[in-house]
């Protein structure tokens, strides 16, 4: 948690500085949109730094869970279908 909090704080600061300076967007990812979201009534940032840090932790957990599930399913199906496995091995060996 301390590591993700520190990374989030750095990224929030970078996004807020870029926003203030009207600089070009380097990474237009989910976190960029969370950092730069504005309240339509007040024009202030929609999320506080604490809320952004909480969202960071949630996104890390959600991203790692779906990624690991996808990789597990990929290997399961590849190893249970010999034709697909053989085709994949051939393609990898021919190209790498």
Give the SSE map.
Elements: H1 2-21, H2 30-36, H3 49-79, H4 82-95
Looking at this protein, list some descriptive labels.
96 residues, mainly alpha, 4 helices, 0% strand
Q: What does this protein structure show overall?
A:
This protein is mainly α. The chain has one domain (2-95). It is built from four helices and no strands. Helix 1 packs across helix 3 (49-79). The relative contact order is 0.10.
Largest sheet: none
The H/E string reads HHHH
Approximate shape: elongated
Distance N to C terminus: 38 Å
Strand content: under 5%
Q: Helix content range of the residues, please?
A: over 70%
Uncertain runs with pLDDT below 50, 5 residues or more? none
Number of helices: 4
Spatial extent as radius of gyration: 20 Å
| Number of E-state strands | 0
Mean of residue pLDDT? 91
How many distinct folded domains? 1
- In oligomeric terms, what are we looking at? single chain
Alpha-beta classification: mainly alpha
How would you concisely characterize the structure shown here?
The chain has 96 residues and is an all-alpha fold.
